[in-house]
Each structure stands twice: as structure tokens, then as C-alpha cells.
Specification:
Blueprint: H1 2-17, H2 19-23, H3 27-39, E1 46-50, E2 58-63, E3 66-72, E4 79-82, H4 83-88, E5 100-104, E6 107-121, E7 124-134, E8 142-144, H5 146-149, E9 154-158, E10 161-165
Parallel strand pairs: 3-8, 4-7
Antiparallel strand pairs: 1-10, 2-3, 2-6, 5-6, 6-7, 9-10
Amino acid sequence: MHRVLVFAALAIGFSLAVPSLLSERSDEEKSVDLAAAERTPATSRTVRLDADRSGHFTAEFKINGRKVDGLIDTGATAVAINDTMARKLGVKLKPADFTHRVQTANGSVAVAPVLLKRIELGSIRVRDVRAVVIGDDSLAHTLIGMSFLKRLRSYRVENNTLILSL
């Protein structure tokens, strides 16, 4: 139960504290996103995920080419990974990179904004996804938040199945 509360608090914290991270985009990053969108084929790519026993949608993603188990969290503003996962994904951070703070059930924690090269789920591939890195003691699992989901054409739940389309 404590972990559920921590996840809920993280989601609330992200939704309150991280929007400014996502809106700070340089002209270079905007052109990268546009270029990626122009290369996306017109055909739709769809992935369907059944809810687990607790009603959550989890899946094996590929982030920066590495397999990662992730929990889809529409209440999280950004994708969130812990420090250990960031290192596995090739994201190199210094203590000075943890420049923002979010509020969780365990109190305020520092986060480092990062840009993930690629997130894949089945046939869905999204490049240059904004994320935050959080210390291992504050985040046990990878959360796939709105910085990924809003890049899709659509996502919806039907009959306990999450349908994601690019």
C-alpha cells in the first residue's frame, strides 16, 4: 500500500512541478521533433495492453535501445526513471544536474531533466522524449508519463485494454 501511495504522490508531484521542464524547448529540439514527425509513415501503428490484476497498464518498453519494464501513468507529466536505470540507458548525470524539485509522499526530491533518444513499445517508436531522473530511493519503477503519451496520435481505454496509436 505504501508503494501505491508513493506512486500517487510522484504522479501528483510531476503534474505540479514538471510542466516547466517540458515547455523549455530550444529551437533545435523543435526542429528535431518536426523532422521525426515528417519521417513517420502515414499508416497507423497500434499497440494494445491489457490491464494487470490491479488495473495498471505495464509493458516492456525499449528506451535508448534497452529493455525496460514501465508503468503507464497518465497522471505523470513526464517519463520518470531512477538513477540506476538512467546509467543503464547511457544517461550520464552529475549531482549538479538535479536542478528541479518535485513533491512526493516521502517529501521533496531533486530531479534531473533529460532527453531520451528513443522510446519504443511494439511497433510504436517515439524519438527525443523528455524525462526526469529521480534517485533510486524515491522511485523503484519506470513511469511512462505524458511526455511520451502526448506524442502519440491517440490513447484510450476500452474494455480494460489500453489502445495506443501512433
